[in-house]
């Protein structure tokens, strides 16, 4: 009927991962699961490339193909230039496409993007807007509904200026940015939002191995909340480094046969890059990849194959750099590999099986390595960030913008984190054991509940709540070492790691030591075979409330410990 | 976060001699905490943010969240039951359904034409639950009067049929909003009051959404668009609902036809009246609309400005023309004067030349006289005549300059007869050489 509700259009949000190399869009499907959306061409990883021919705009894979013929009017690898001045950008990735130029206080590209011949200067913000507009269009077409808001992922080192520039670009593209979230956290969220996942306290390393850069972050995941403990970045390491190995391999083969270097010719290099990248991706799945390029150099057609073993041999050094980055970030966080509960591999280069296998060797058996080659339930590494963003988008979609801003305000996000773990000390005869209940780096206020077995005989029970610290205990050689350090060529990279482990056959394990007692409780008259429930609540001011009672029992022992 | 960790470790037994008040003893404090930024991501963070912003503890937050969830479902169930039932309405006769307010019967007067089919359905269901005759009988209501239930059914029948509902909405006067009087609107509530009117009238529009009246800051285009819309209003309003009942007994076909005709006429008349009414309404509103005056004033000011500019331009052009004309005149005058001066000068020069020639002629003529016409002693008349004829002849053959030269030479010759004769001889010889004089034409030289 004539219902005149024509107020503000309803907000419809998606998650966007906007990368240097490729971007993805995701939404929450009606079943409540995150789902990465394919664009018109069926790509879920849409290359962040725009190309112009006679004023017509090409996007994604089509634009990427233009890197060979129309490189001057093709813009690629521009995400990191957003909100930066010309002096501070690294123009290397753009060597093969339109070159960045200084323009006022920002970066611009000079491209022929209309039907007239003269090139126009297009700022990187405008390029980002056009790119986001195409992504928005793809999502809207797929969903049959105008998308007008998004959660976008950004690297952890994105500055405020870059965030502002990205928000402005998105706004110009008709997207309200609900929130910018960090890529590693989005990846962790994507894993933790699976229905089978349970909320546990864990330390997670997120290795985001992208196309042109790699980042690693250590996250403390405590009761479903994430805090970043350390980050490490390598701006030169990425899928492109691996591509280069393949390219060099084939180029050498070509030189041997035909005495010319295809890399010296810009077009030849572009063709090699495109095909080399495809070959590298093939090698992540199969054991053999073939490459065939027509007219690679001097009109000579080239075809060859490479197998995975050869590729892995050639890439040993580069792989070691990836694992080195992971070790570096753990060291930066002041942790040990044994502390890490999960390693999440994200980003395109994470499909490479060898990298995950090498990481498997670094960590202990208990550590879960979440990569396609080591864990069958792994989520496609390329889809982690967009999925996380989509989950977050669905969570905050209903909120007012003001509400969101208040929630992500430093007043709310800056919280005290526990310095030492809080747990219970068990004394059985001579041995003293410590069981952590609240882990280190738990955001306060926090509350944890645990159940412990009562002594077999029942009776009165003693609970001693303590602060504990973990120590790495190194036991000297034994005939069959449980854990072994990978002794490959990356030895030179992790000298720091080696220092406390010169002997290769050591057993390293985590041992908890009581640091200082906090409180003592007694639960009296516990029945035999029953359990005792302990609840510890830590306030933001470090005060504690402790409650202990027999499960099913009426009488509880309560007490409070005042803040220091 | 209330998941319970189950740890399969036995707690130690209480050692002898340990005792504390209420079995609890604080023996230490926690180490200082480190400040870190939480990542504002994920459902657990949102819960944390909620707790922190509203200063709730874990258990409070859980309770409030649970309560909110419960409330939501309850509200959905009984949101429309709030309207009271008028006892007058309850005793209505169902036969008089044409005059009943169907929305009031279903208890959705606050929605009226805005009510969605879903709301109507729910409202109907609720009313049926309350007023079903069987229920009444079960409650021991002796009345056995189910007329209101029939009213409910009729209301539902009409409102759930889109065509019938439109017919009823067309004549639903309770949904009409009376246009404000001039006095009311002048009090500064113009936009508020008229907006309500147009919102209610807008329900008849075939074109949705209907443009809004706007406010003081609306642009000319918006206001223009608004009035254009209302002056070209395309209404679906029909007046079938007010039709007289057509007798459906097969006997009086004529009467039936006549009623139908009457009804059609009445509908047409009402429609025309409605259109006129709406037009007057829009006229009234436009007359009171300050914005139109403002725009007119602005347009007039604009026009005036343009006219002034035009006039100034014309004036400037005229002045320029005048100036050009004056300059031209001055130039002409100057030229004339110059020409006149030139003429004078020429005249004078001519006269001077004439005088010089005269003088020279005199000198030439005199020269022969001075030398006594080349005669020794008294010259005879014929001699004089012949010499003078010769001199005249030479003079007629030469121009002013040559004459001047001749005169000069003659003056130099003075009274020497031979010299004078010589000069003449030379001159005649030159003239003969130039072909101006024939040999022997001069008798004396």
Automatic annotation (TrEMBL), chain A:
One of its GO terms (molecular function) is unfolded protein binding. Keywords: ATP-binding, Nucleotide-binding. Gene3D superfamilies: 3.30.30.30, 3.30.420.40, Actin, Chain A, domain 4 (3.90.640.10). Residues 489-506 have a biased composition (Acidic residues). Residues 475-506 are annotated as: Disordered. GO terms for biological process: 'de novo' cotranslational protein folding; cytoplasmic translation; regulation of translational fidelity; rRNA processing; translational frameshifting. Transmembrane segments: none annotated. Pfam families: HSP70. CDD domains: ASKHA_NBD_HSP70_ScSsz1p-like (cd10232). GO terms for cellular component: cytosol; nucleus; protein folding chaperone complex. It comes from the Eukaryota. InterPro entries: ATPase_NBD, Hsp_70_fam. Residues 475-488 have a biased composition (Basic and acidic residues). This is DNA, SC011.
From TrEMBL, chain B:
One of its GO terms (molecular function) is ribosome binding. The keyword Transferase does not apply. Pfam families: DnaJ, RAC_head, ZUO1-like_ZHD, Zuotin_N. Residues 250-263, 303-353 have a biased composition (Basic and acidic residues). It is found in: Cytoplasm. Residues 101-172 form the J domain. Keywords: Chaperone, Cytoplasm, Stress response. One of its GO terms (biological process) is rRNA processing. Residues 53-86, 247-273, 303-362 are annotated as: Disordered. InterPro entries: DnaJ_domain (IPR001623), DnaJ_domain_CS (IPR018253), J_dom_sf (IPR036869), RAC_head (IPR032003), RAC_head_sf (IPR042569), ZUO1-like_ZHD (IPR054076), Zuotin/DnaJC2 (IPR044634), Zuotin_N (IPR058871). GO terms for cellular component: cytosol; nucleolus; protein folding chaperone complex; ribosome. Residues 75-86 have a biased composition (Acidic residues). This is Heat shock protein DnaJ domain protein. It comes from Aspergillus oryzae. The lineage of its organism: Eukaryota, Fungi, Dikarya, Ascomycota, Pezizomycotina.
């Amino acid at each position: 009927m004539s219902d005149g509700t024509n107020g503000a259009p309803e907000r419809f949000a998606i998650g966007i991962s906007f990368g240097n190399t490729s971007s993805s869009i995701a939404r929450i499907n009606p079943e409540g699961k995150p789902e990465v959306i394919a664009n018109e061409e069926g790509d879920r990883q849409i290359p962040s490339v725009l190309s112009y021919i006679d004023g017509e705009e090409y996007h994604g894979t089509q634009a990427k193909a233009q890197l060979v013929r129309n490189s001057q009017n093709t813009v690629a690898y521009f995400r990191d230039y957003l909100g930066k001045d010309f002096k501070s950008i690294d123009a290397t990735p753009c060597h093969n496409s339109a070159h960045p130029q200084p323009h006022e206080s920002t970066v611009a590209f000079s491209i022929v993007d209309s039907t007239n011949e003269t090139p126009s200067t297009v700022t990187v913000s405008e390029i980002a807007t056009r790119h986001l507009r195409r992504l928005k269009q793809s999502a809207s077409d797929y969903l049959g509904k105008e998308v007008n808001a998004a959660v976008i992922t950004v690297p952890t080192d994105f500055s405020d200026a870059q965030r502002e520039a990205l928000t402005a670009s998105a706004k110009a593209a008709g997207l309200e940015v609900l929130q910018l979230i960090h890529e590693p956290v989005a990846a962790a969220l994507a894993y933790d939002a699976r229905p089978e996942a349970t909320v546990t306290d864990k330390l997670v390393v997120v290795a985001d191995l992208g196309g042109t850069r790699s980042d690693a972050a250590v996250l403390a995941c405590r009761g479903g909340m994430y805090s970043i403990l350390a980050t490490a970045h390598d701006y030169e390491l990425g899928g492109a480094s691996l591509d280069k190995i393949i390219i060099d391999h084939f180029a050498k083969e070509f030189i041997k046969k035909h005495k010319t270097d295809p890399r010296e010719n810009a077009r030849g290099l572009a063709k090699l890059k495109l095909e080399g990248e495809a070959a590298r991706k093939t090698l992540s799945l199969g054991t053999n990849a073939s490459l065939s390029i027509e007219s690679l150099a001097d009109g000579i057609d080239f075809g060859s194959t490479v197998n995975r073993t050869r590729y892995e041999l050639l890439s040993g050094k580069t792989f070691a750099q990836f694992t080195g980055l992971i070790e570096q970030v753990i060291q930066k966080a002041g942790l040990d590999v044994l502390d890490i509960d999960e390693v999440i591999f994200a980003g395109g280069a994470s499909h490479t099986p060898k990298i995950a296998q090498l990481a498997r060797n670094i960590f202990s058996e208990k550590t879960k390595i979440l990569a396609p080659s080591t864990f069958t339930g792994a989520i496609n590494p390329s889809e982690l960030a967009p999925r996380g963003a989509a989950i977050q988008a669905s969570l905050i979609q209903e909120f007012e913008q003001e509400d969101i801003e208040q929630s992500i305000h430093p007043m709310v996000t800056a919280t005290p984190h526990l310095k030492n773990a809080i747990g219970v000390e068990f004394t059985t005869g001579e041995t003293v054991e410590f069981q952590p209940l609240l882990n280190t780096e738990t955001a306060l206020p926090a509350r944890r509940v645990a159940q412990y077995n009562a002594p077999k005989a029942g009776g009165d029970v003693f609970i001693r709540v303590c602060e504990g610290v973990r120590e790495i205990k190194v036991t000297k050689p034994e005939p069959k070492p449980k854990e072994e350090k990978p002794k490959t060529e990356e030895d030179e990279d992790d000298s720091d790691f080696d220092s406390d482990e010169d002997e290769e056959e050591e057993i390293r394990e985590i041992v908890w030591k009581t640091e200082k007692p906090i409180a003592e409780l007694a639960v009296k008259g516990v029945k035999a075979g029953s359990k005792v429930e302990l609840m510890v609540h830590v306030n933001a001011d470090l005060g504690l409330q402790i409650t202990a009672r027999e499960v099913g029992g009426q009488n509880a022992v309560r007490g409070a410990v005042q803040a220091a | 976060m209330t998941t319970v960790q189950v740890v399969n470790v036995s707690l130690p037994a209480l050692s002898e001699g340990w005792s504390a008040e209420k079995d609890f003893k604080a023996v230490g404090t926690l180490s200082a905490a480190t400040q870190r930024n939480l990542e504002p991501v994920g459902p657990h963070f949102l819960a944390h943010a909620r707790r922190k912003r509203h200063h709730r503890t874990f258990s409070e937050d859980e309770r409030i969240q649970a309560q909110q969830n419960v409330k939501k479902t309850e509200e959905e169930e009984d949101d429309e039951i709030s309207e009271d039932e008028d006892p007058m309405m309850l005793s209505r006769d169902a036969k008089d359904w044409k005059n009943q307010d169907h929305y009031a019967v279903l208890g959705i007067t606050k929605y009226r034409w805005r009510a969605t089919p879903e709301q109507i359905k729910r409202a109907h269901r609720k009313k049926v639950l309350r007023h079903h005759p069987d229920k009444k009988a079960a409650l021991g209501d002796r009345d056995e009067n189910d007329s209101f239930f029939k009213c409910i059914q009729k209301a539902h029948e009409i409102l759930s049929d889109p065509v019938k509902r439109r017919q009823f909405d067309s004549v639903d006067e309770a949904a009409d909003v009376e246009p404000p009087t001039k006095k009311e609107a002048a009090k500064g509530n113009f936009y508020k009051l008229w907006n309500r009117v147009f919102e209610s009238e807008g329900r008849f529009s075939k074109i949705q959404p209907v443009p809004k009246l706007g406010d003081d800051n609306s642009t000319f285009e918006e206001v223009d668009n608004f009035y254009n819309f209302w002056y070209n209003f395309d209404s679906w309003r029909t007046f079938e609902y007010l039709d007289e009942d057509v007798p459906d007994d097969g006997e009086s076909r004529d009467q039936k036809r006549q009623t139908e005709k009457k009804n059609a006429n009445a509908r047409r008349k009402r429609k025309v009246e409605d259109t006129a009414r709406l037009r007057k309404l829009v006229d009234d509103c436009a007359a009171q609309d300050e914005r139109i005056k403002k725009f007119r004033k602005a347009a007039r000011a604009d026009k005036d400005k343009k006219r002034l500019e035009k006039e100034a331009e014309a004036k400037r052009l005229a002045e320029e023309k005048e100036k050009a004309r004056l300059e031209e005149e001055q130039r002409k005058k100057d030229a004339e004067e110059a020409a006149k001066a030139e003429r004078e000068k020429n005249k004078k020069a001519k006269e001077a030349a004439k005088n010089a020639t005269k003088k020279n002629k005199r000198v030439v003529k005199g020269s022969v006289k001075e030398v006594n016409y080349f005669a020794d002693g008294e010259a005879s008349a014929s001699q004089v005549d012949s010499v003078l004829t010769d001199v005249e002849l030479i003079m007629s053959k030469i121009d002013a300059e040559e004459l001047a030269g001749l005169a000069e030479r003659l003056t130099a010759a003075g009274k020497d007869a031979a010299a004078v004769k010589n000069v003449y001889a030379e001159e005649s010889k030159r003239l003969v050489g130039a072909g101006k004089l024939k040999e022997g034409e001069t008798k004396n030289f």
